[in-house]
Structures are given as structure tokens and as C-alpha cells.
Design a protein that fits this description.
This protein has a single domain, classed as Porin (Beta Barrel), CATH 2.40.160. It contains 1 helix and 12 strands. It starts with a helix and ends with a strand. The protein is elongated and about 60 Å long. Strands 1-4-5-6-7-8-9-12 form an 8-stranded antiparallel barrel. Strands 10-11 form a two-stranded antiparallel ribbon. By secondary structure, the chain is mainly β.
């Protein structure tokens, strides 16, 4: 991930060199963004009655995250964004067979407060989302086998855009989410970081 970030920044600097600056007032009001990166859970997934035993800690591993978003600038410093995406995490117990895969489709609404500085555009974000969550459990002989749930949560974070011209931009974004779906009465917290590299097109 560090190597990819360095390569992205080098590319961005090179593109800035051949791009003409655009002021925020000249930007088209709408945009599409394509985001790809990683989901890093903050907590292990604890499941009761896994393989007929007591509570089992499933180590949660970093997985893929992606999103497509549509946004609108209401002001040069304020935008609202609607997005849909996918992220996942796998887990397995330390001392027994079996594994679990958490798959999530987020549908989110995000407000962004931006600081338009020409080419460089940092921002903070806060939003709400509905999370369609599926937990697949394999190798489990107990009562809990996984299911699908829809839950709601919050997210907040920061990011920045580099404006190559008034229509094309790219950037990096990091956000933390809070959500807790329930599967058969068991709660699995989705809390964690989503970090993405983004490319966008204004129109």
C-alpha cells in the first residue's frame, strides 16, 4: 500500500506539471468518483456457539473496498455525495477449524466541507449509511451459520483532491465507519477504516 501511495503521488505531481490551474468558481457542479482501496477492521468478530463451543474470536483481516459516488457542489466549499460500494473482511479462529467472510454493500450519503485552494483541495467529511451485510460461516457445526442483515451507521474522515483541470481530479480519502449488524441475535461490529485512492470527473 505504501508503494502504491508513493506511485500515485509521483503521478499526481507529474500531471500537475502539465495541467492548467482551475479556480473553484469554474468547476462544473456535478461529479462522479471511482474509489478503490482497503477496509481495515478495528475489532475481531466474536461469535457465540462457534463449533458448539463458547465465544470464539475470529481474527479480522484487511480486505478490498471500492465505491462509486455521485456528488453535487452546492457551494465551492460544500458538496453532498451519494455512493454505493462493496467491502469485505475474512476471519478465522486461532485454534480450531472454520472461517468466516464478511461481505458488505454500503449505500451512503456524505457531506463534504472543502477548502478550495486551486489545484489542491483538502476536505473533511461526515455521513450516514445503510449497510447490507452478509456473514458466511464455514466449518461450523454449531447453531450459528451466518445470515444477511441491513443496519445503519455513521462515517467520518478526511481527504484531498488534486485538480488536473476543471473536469478531472484525483485524490486520497480515509474514513472511519461505525455500524453493528445483528446475525441471529449476535452483533458483529463493522467499525474500521476505509482508505481509498480516487479518480473523479466533473460535468
Amino acid at each position: 500500500m505504501k508503494t502504491a501511495t508513493i506511485m500515485f503521488l509521483v503521478l499526481a505531481v507529474a500531471l500537475i506539471g502539465i495541467s492548467s490551474p482551475a479556480s473553484a468558481e469554474e468547476y462544473p457542479a456535478n461529479y462522479m468518483m471511482f474509489k478503490g482501496g482497503i477496509y481495515s477492521p478495528s475489532l475481531s468478530h466474536d461469535l457465540d456457539n462457534f463449533n458448539g463451543g463458547s465465544t470464539t474470536h475470529l481474527d479480522s483481516k484487511t480486505g478490498f473496498a471500492g465505491e462509486i459516488a455521485y456528488g453535487h457542489y452546492f457551494l465551492p466549499i460544500l458538496a453532498i455525495e451519494l455512493g454505493a460500494g462493496y467491502f469485505e473482511s475474512k476471519g478465522s479462529p486461532a485454534a480450531e477449524p472454520g472461517k468466516a467472510k464478511l461481505k458488505v454493500v454500503p449505500l451512503v450519503a456524505t457531506g463534504k466541507v472543502l477548502l478550495p485552494l486551486g489545484i489542491f483541495e483538502p476536505y473533511g467529511l461526515f455521513g450516514i449509511g445503510a449497510y447490507i451485510t452478509d456473514l458466511d460461516v464455514s466449518g461450523n457445526i454449531g447453531n450459528f451459520r451466518g445470515s444477511t442483515d441491513v443496519t445503519y451507521g455513521l462515517h467520518a474522515g478526511v481527504g484531498f483532491n488534486i485538480n488536473f483541470n476543471k473536469n478531472v481530479f484525483a485524490g486520497l480519502e480515509g474514513k472511519y465507519l461505525w455500524a453493528e449488524p445483528s446475525f441471529g441475535g449476535q452483533h458483529v461490529r463493522l467499525d474500521g477504516f476505509i482508505t481509498t485512492a480516487d479518480i473523479g470527473f466533473r460535468f
